[in-house]
User: Fold this.
Amino acid sequence: MKRKEKKIYKKAYSAQEKMKALNLLKHSTFEYVAHRYHCTIQTLYRWRKIFDGTLDSLEPKYCAPYTPHPNRHTDEEIKHIKDLIRRNPHIGLNELYGKLRLNFSYSRNPVSLYRFLRKNGWYENVKKKVKYIPQPYDTPIHIGEKWQFDAKYIPRDCYVGDFKEDRRYYQYTVIDEATRERFIYPMRELCPQSTVECIKRAIIYFGYKPKVIQTDNGAEFTYTQQTKSDKVHLFDQFCEMMNIQHKTIKPRTPRHNGKVERSHRNDNERFYRWLKFYSYEDLKKQMKAYLERSNNIPISVLTSRDGKRKWLTPKEKRKELLLLDWNVIE
Assistant:
């Protein structure tokens, strides 16, 4: 049985639309005009009745009388509010509410006072938050130019083994900006030692070291404040030894490390949403299989240098750049 479609009518019509409908009605049927303008036949009769030859007669008219709300602010309360604001132009909402309640027995809710002030233009000059406009980012086009490095918590719900309150696992993620190829590895601790161990494994996995590693300002990557005796962070020591530049992003701006942050969101949707592991070894095994899978998923921004091939996988982009940049074929 075919389902009957529900008719949808417009809520308001301009005077020009009404005039066009009445002109069309001169040489068409009521049914056709009602279907054309998505209104009822009774509406057309009403428009024709009120039409006196002028466009003003078709303008929307609201004849309902104004009925003030019975619980509105009284004239006396409004006078007290305006007097306080006039004497204290820079008074805040909390202070204003306190003075009204203390001196004039004001018993309304603070939200009612806020709505009254907003309705009367008290908050019109409040500065609106300027929307952030992302700046153009210079993504490297050569392999091994820059890595983004970050760590995240592995959801505790994924762990189905013997539960312990202090048991936490962490995922370290390294991503090459040019190829979007990633290396991920689970760790039991979020500390400088784990950071250095992960980056060593990443260098072995990729087969090369980068010129720049970009991280946030977490304690596992760097010291945010100057330490006693100018102690150097363990990860900074490793980067200096390997002749790698360690670059940190601006504090509290994770968008500057956007590629690795976006990959973490994809991990939550593709991997951790379904993951169940019972031990650390089981987690490593499943994460290794997922790493192989994620590096073979096409990405819209990965295209060949000549522009002929689009939606390349990180593995395919890696092969192309190895051949073009280093003349190496895997």
The chain has three domains: 15-58, 75-119, 146-297. The chain has a mean pLDDT of 89. Residues 153 and 273 are 14 Å apart (CA to CA).
